[in-house]
Structure formats: structure tokens, C-alpha cells
Design goal:
four-stranded antiparallel sheet, ATP-binding, binds magnesium ion, transport, nucleotide-binding, membrane, ATP hydrolysis activity, binds adenosine-5'-diphosphate
């Protein structure tokens, strides 16, 4: 028997696979042939200077940007196939952005259950039960009926993470989710990400938090001008980077 399992199992293990992904804005190449694999339960930190293409990479996975070339497989399905239903794909992916993206006119609980009710057609009572349970797990049960502006920035980002997780996505994409927060609020959000990673959530996160990436990521990917220059374990990337561009970047930011 093969230790690699059947092809179907390999597909299941491989949550995301980007193959030769290219994207330009006008005549400016922003992603220049990205090959990247995210396996189940990995926590991948995407690092790189501002403008290196991290957000664009995450946005192509969530089909917020169309790729010019290459393909993206989500658990074996080519989601860049034009015939694919983008909403159905997005329902399988959780994404959280830098700026809190809770709807201000909805309670925290309604924010969390919105996709469950409208995309996944879950009954209100069931969606509310799941939402309350998730909010309780992150210590936000008391805020379920509050509007987002009653929450601190850190609490809002934790609620946004809960909302992204409510539909049980195959992968969680996090785009610099602590960069807009006051420094004293960063810790509680990173702590939640750490717990999610430890409990097996598959995470691909763009981050400026190098100490956090070193501590929590299972794999680190350094993006430089739309190219993956180097990738490896946190120990290798932070401890003994091979590429001079990686070294120069880390010297600047650490
Ligand atoms: P990062 O997240 O690493 O800072 P981005 O993916 O946001 O990088 O941006 C990469 C490059 O693409 C930047 O030069 C940015 O100005 C450009 N860019 C991003 N989005 C757009 C857009 N919608 N139109 C034109 N240029 C864009
Ligand atoms: Mg960005």
C-alpha cells in the first residue's frame, strides 16, 4: 500500500494549489507565475514588502480578481474555470481583510450568520445557535446583539474571523488583519489565529507580524515583486534565509 494514500485522499489533503498564476494591472505585472500549495491544517505566512502582491494573491483565490494565466485548484476543483460559480466558490473560502468589514447596520450575530442564512440557506434558529456558539468560543457572547461600533477594533476583527468561519470554510485567508489595529489590540487577534491554527484550521495569511509568523506558521512564503523568492519552514526563512532579497527584507523589518 502506498503511504501517499489514494489520489482522492491526496486531493483532500491539498486544499489549495496555485499553478503558474499570473496577474497584471494594465501593463504592470503583479503576480508573475505563482506556484503554491496549501495542505490541510497548514498555517502559511505570506510575507513581503508592501506592493509585492500579497493582497492580490489572496484576492485571486477568492475570485475577487481574475487571473490572466495559470489556475487555482480548491480541493481539486479548478476555480479559475470561467464556468465555475464564483459565489459557490466563495462560500467554501473564509476571508478577512485589514479593515474591519462587519456591516455596521447589523448586529454582531446577524453579521456572523448572514452567509449561513443567505448563501447556505440555514434556518435562522440553527444559524443563530451556531453563531452564538462560535461567538462564545471567542469570548464575544455578550456582544452578540450589539452593533459593531460598540466593539473595540480587536473585538471587531475577532467577530470578522468568526463570521468567516461560520460556514466552515475549507481555507481561511487573512490579509494583514492586525495592521489597522492599535498596538494593544493586536495580541488578542493573533491569539485567536494561533488557537485556530492549533485546532487544525487551514490558514493562508499575509502578515507583517514577523515574530508571530515565526512562532505560529508551519510554512513561510516570501513574495517579492510578484515572485515567490523563497519558501520554507519558519526556522529556515527567519533563521537562515538563502536568497539575498529575503535577507534584505528581513533586515529591514525585524
Ligand atoms: P501587497 O498586498 O503585498 O501590499 P498588493 O497586492 O496590494 O500588494 O499590490 C501589488 C501591486 O498591485 C501594487 O503595485 C499595487 O499598486 C497594484 N494593484 C493592486 N490592486 C490594483 C488594482 N485594482 N488596480 C491597479 N493596480 C493594483
Ligand atoms: Mg496588502
Amino acid at each position: 500500500m502506498s503511504a501517499l494514500g489514494t489520489p482522492a485522499e491526496a486531493d483532500e489533503q491539498r486544499v489549495l494549489r496555485l499553478e503558474g498564476v499570473r496577474k497584471s494591472f494594465g501593463d504592470r505585472p503583479v503576480l508573475s507565475g505563482i506556484d503554491l500549495t496549501v495542505d490541510a491544517h497548514e498555517v502559511i505566512a505570506l510575507i513581503g514588502a508592501s506592493g509585492s502582491g500579497k493582497s492580490t494573491l489572496l484576492r485571486t483565490i477568492n475570485l475577487l480578481e481574475q487571473v490572466d494565466d495559470g489556475r487555482i485548484l480548491l480541493t481539486g476543483t479548478d476555480i479559475t474555470d470561467p464556468r465555475v460559480d464564483a459565489d459557490a466558490v466563495r462560500a467554501r473560502i473564509g476571508i478577512v481583510f485589514q479593515h474591519y468589514n462587519l456591516f455596521p447596520h447589523l448586529s454582531v450575530l446577524d453579521n456572523v450568520t448572514l452567509a449561513l442564512r443567505h448563501v447556505h440557506r440555514t434556518k435562522k434558529a440553527d444559524a443563530d445557535r451556531r453563531g452564538l456558539d462560535l461567538l462564545a468560543q471567542v469570548g464575544l457572547a455578550d456582544f452578540a446583539r450589539s452593533y459593531p461600533d460598540r466593539l473595540s477594533g480587536g473585538q471587531q476583527q475577532r467577530a470578522a474571523i468568526v463570521r468567516a468561519l461560520a460556514s466552515d470554510p475549507e481555507v481561511l485567508l487573512l490579509d494583514e488583519i492586525t495592521s489597522a489595529l492599535d498596538p494593544e489590540l493586536v495580541g488578542e487577534v493573533l491569539e485567536l489565529v494561533r488557537e485556530l491554527g492549533a485546532s487544525g484550521t487551514t490558514i493562508l495569511m499575509a502578515t507583517h507580524e514577523m515574530a508571530f509568523a515565526r512562532d505560529v506558521a508551519t510554512h513561510v512564503v516570501f513574495l517579492d515583486a510578484g515572485v515567490i523568492r523563497e519558501q520554507g519552514t519558519p526556522e529556515q526563512i527567519f533563521g537562515s534565509p538563502r536568497d539575498p532579497r529575503t535577507r534584505a527584507f528581513l533586515d529591514r523589518v525585524t
